[in-house]
Amino acid sequence: MPGVLSVTLILMPGVLSVTLILMPGVLSVTLILMPGVLS
Question: Model's pTM, two decimal places?
Answer without folding.
Answer: 0.24
